[in-house]
Amino acid sequence: MVSRVVLSMVAALVMIAAPGAADAQSARETREGRVSACSTYGNGCVTVPIRRAQYDYELRMPSGSWVSCRMDCKSALREEVLDFWETLRERSGDRSR
Question: Is 74 within the bounds of a domain?
């Protein structure tokens, strides 16, 4: 008798949790489709598509080529597209501006 009650409770929990998992998957797929970033130097904002590559994600540059997101697609977009020259200057140690 107790095992039937436990089994029915587990079945009910699985049925309740299943729609939540599907919603989470749907939200993740939506987020994976595009990424937006704004410049920290006032160079504007841009939204580009992203895709899953073999090992990580890639973002499509405005020129059409795909580059790796590394750890964070939003930061990669900002550094590679919007703040490219400022990022190079920061990495070189030049603080003349």
Answer: yes
